[in-house]
Design goal:
147 residues; binds 4-nitrophenyl phosphate
């Protein structure tokens, strides 16, 4: 489960990019990916036009992706939760209780690059940067899962 703040820019991009890679590897019957936000401002909405444009330009589907909000049950239902930035990470950790079984990590934990948080294109306008960081780290995440 990929998590950002609004679930319209970064985490839906990570969901779409990761699903595309999973499909490429023929693992789409084994690995399920989704995304949500720690805030509910945009629940039910499609991804940001900047996210959709960059996915379209790379031939990556965002069909059916709609914003939703992180709930405590997700920490039991998913194997792992992947935070886009450090604020998301602390918000996720705050939701944990004794029933939470999922691992919780930053997306950058799966990257070889020298960065910690995915800068928020809602503020920076730089969806290309988001795409580059997300793509490199999602390859690392997939390698980590598949060994
Ligand atoms: P995201 O970006 O967390 O990458 O989806 C944002 C989207 C919306 C807002 C903030 C960040 N907002 O304040 O509405």
């Amino acid at each position: 489960m990929f998590v950002c703040l609004g679930n319209i820019c970064r985490s839906p991009m990570a969901e779409a990019v990761f699903r595309h890679m999973v499909k490429r590897e023929g693992l789409d019957d084994k690995i399920f990916a989704s995304s949500c936000g720690t805030a509910n401002y945009h629940t039910g909405k499609s991804p940001h036009s900047g996210t959709m444009a960059i996915l379209n330009s790379h031939g990556i589907s965002h069909d059916g992706i709609k914003a939703s909000t992180l709930e405590r049950r997700h920490l039991q239902e998913y194997d792992g939760i992947v935070a886009m930035d450090e604020e998301n990470l602390s918000d996720i950790i705050r939701l944990k209780n004794k029933n939470s079984t999922a691992w919780v990590k930053l997306l950058s934990d799966f990257s070889d690059g020298n960065w910690v948080s995915v800068p928020d294109p809602w503020y920076t306008g730089d969806f290309e940067q988001t795409y580059e960081l997300v793509t490199e780290a999602c390859e690392g995440l997939l390698q980590n899962i598949t060994g």
